[in-house]
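Lab manual, section 2.4: Encoding a predicted structure.

Procedure: take the sequence of the chain (106 residues), apply the prediction step described in section 2.3, and record the output as structure tokens. A sample record is shown.
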Amino acid sequence: MWERIRRELLVEYYWWKRQSGRKRNLDSPFSLLGIMCTGIGIIILVLMGQTFAAVYRNMIPIVNGAQVADAYWSSLAFALKFSLMMILLFVTLVLSIIFRFTRRKK
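Recorded output:
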């Protein structure tokens, strides 16, 4: 009798483990929260890049004529590079943390 109960519990545990290990759909609350956090994070990083570009633009000495456009576009390129580098940094940081904690232990 105990062997039968044990066997039934092991079967239930097997199916529970299999069901809980499934990936979540995109309409689950965790996925929506992840998508929203990622979008907001990208927007914040772009705004940070624009802020640094504005500081960089203010540090440029007074320029004349065609040099104004060069200074503006160089500061815009700086903001874009800064934003992309920060996004890459945070994505690699998050992925390394995720892979470290979800790695299967043998």
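Check your result against the sample. Residues 90 and 96 are 10 Å apart (CA to CA).
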